[in-house]
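User: I've been trying to design a sequence by hand for this structure and keep getting stuck. Would you show me what you'd pick, starting by listing the structure so we're on the same page?

Assistant: Good idea, let's start from the same input. This is the structure you sent:
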């Protein structure tokens, strides 16, 4: 070990070459084993992080789906910290299957991600609880033009049925979206 290589005998050279080869194989094997263990640990940690993110997303969407009224805005802000692509898929999958009042909060979530379900949201204006008005208006904000056409169509239908309560609710939402024609007509004292 501490001798000069030039002074080695032929047997010493053969022995050192064999030792070098032996230790090279051993160290290569040890390094490969360490890399394999590190890779396995990294994969386990990564899989656990994915499962954890999925649990957090599922819980956040559950909370949104069960929220009503003013609580919706807090539930929607909780969604902002989640991965948009996965969240959009989760919301869309649940939206398709949801029924009744559990579908409306999912539509709010989709609207928050830019996928406004204007047809469904405008169809809920007349029947939704009063506390949902601001949420519907916020959700329709990204599709004002489409919402206006749908709301004005519903206003015409409400006029034909002489359903003034429905007409007024629709006109109020239209007003909050920036279209005041119908509400101005309703409030005018001219006959």
């Amino acid at each position: 070990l501490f001798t000069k290589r030039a002074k080695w005998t032929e047997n010493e050279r053969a022995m050192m070459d064999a030792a070098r080869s032996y230790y090279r194989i051993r160290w290569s094997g040890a390094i490969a084993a360490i890399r394999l263990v590190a890779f396995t640990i990294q994969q386990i940690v990564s899989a656990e992080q994915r499962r954890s993110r999925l649990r957090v997303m599922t819980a956040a969407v559950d909370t949104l789906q069960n929220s009503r009224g003013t609580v919706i805005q807090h539930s929607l802000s909780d969604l902002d910290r989640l991965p948009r692509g996965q969240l959009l898929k989760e919301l869309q999958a649940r939206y398709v299957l949801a029924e009744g009042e559990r579908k409306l909060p999912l539509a709010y979530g989709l609207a928050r991600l830019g996928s406004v379900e204007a047809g469904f949201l405008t169809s809920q204006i007349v029947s939704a609880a009063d506390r949902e008005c601001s949420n519907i208006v916020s959700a329709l904000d990204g599709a004002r033009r489409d919402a206006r056409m749908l709301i004005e169509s519903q206003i015409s239908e409400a006029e034909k049925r002489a359903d003034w309560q429905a007409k007024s609710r629709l006109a109020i939402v239209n007003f909050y979206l920036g279209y005041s024609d119908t509400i101005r007509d309703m409030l005018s004292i001219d006959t």
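That's my pick for every position. To get oriented when you compare it with your attempt: The chain has nine helices and no strands. The chain has a mean pLDDT of 89.
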